[in-house]
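Justification of computing resources. Each target in the renewal requires a structure prediction run like the one illustrated here; the chain below, 430 residues long, is used simply to show the kind of job we budget for.
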Amino acid sequence: MARLFRADHEQLGALSRFNRHPWGTALCLGFRAPGQEGREPDHRAILILFKKDLIPFSEKDSWILELAYHPLSLALEKALTLRLIDVASQQWRSTFDAVSQPISVIDDEFRIVKANRAMADLVGEEIRALKGKRCYQLIAGRRSPCPRCPANAATREAPGVRVRTRGGQDHMVWSHRIRTGRGSYKFQFYRNVTKEQELTSQLIQAEKMVALGALVNAIAHELNNPIAGILATAQLLRRIGGVSDDLLDDAGGIESGALRTKRIIDMLLGFTQSSIRDADESTVEENVHTTLLLAKSALGGVRISTELSCADLVVQNASVHQQILFNLITNAAHALNGGGGVRITSRRTGTNLEISVSDDGPGISQDRLHRIFDPFVTTKAEGEGTGLGLSIVKNLVSRLRGDIRVESSQGRGTAFFVRVPIQSTGGDMP
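Resulting structure tokens:
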């Protein structure tokens, strides 16, 4: 029968008293603390042994017992070492999970070996579910490693690489190689730069809009004078008596073309000006009808259907509404590529007017959808679009204190929904 105690000052005092009893003896076992290999043992444990009879322990008995229980010293050292390793592991895991940025450790096959809590939150899974999964599949939703993957370089000097996650967010990724007794791994560090990218894009777009405003004003000034002359001449020809019917028809076509050109110039000027001052009134039905006439040449043989539940609703700033409709309708017609149709609907929702323009074209991919209202962004082939139409629409809708949203599904078409307050469609708009 035996009992084991950790040696301290009080226990060592009791040891001298205990050794006077014939039915038991106490041994001091030395052991080293972890990290003190090669040194003399400086930690002790008291092993108290009890005998069944009253025959006292001889000096030889004590020597044999010390020799027999030497493995216990080694076991104590090992137990303490394992305990310290366990504590250090828990501290490392707590620190690892406390980092707010996503971190992962991957092997040479891009399999995740370890990941912190922020990484699990990024991909929406539990930490234990990440182990063994390939990082490019889990994070970017790819079937192969990301282009210019930083893990291929994995040096402290290697620059970070931007990666778009499955959720559409942009992250910069840095990778550093770490070597252990079990092999070589890469330490991956992620930082969300989505907001930084958005701010940078907004700054670039603002600079573009300043340049565009100056360009539009210069072009409008150069075009308005000759267009005014053309328009006046065409109108004069139509008023002169004794003119042939063919000439009158030609004059009418010239006048119509000049008016359309003037409207386009006014549309561009309205996009770059700081306020809307038109207070012209028109019904929803008249706005749609006028816009379809203006867009007739762009529509070609596209099938148009309308469902106007509030056709007689009167709105102010009619020309602004027509500009919005014109861009949305022509944009939808171009998306059809010669087939399908465009549907226009309107309805009143409380104090708001909602107009939708939808098509059954090929739709817009998700990676472009979130940038569809940015200037100079277009889904058309190179050279076929300026990328300004939807940006102009959003600008005009904002000035009417409204909002616009888009829904699209590839292969099923796209729908734009414009909602503006009815009571704030008049007067000067900011």
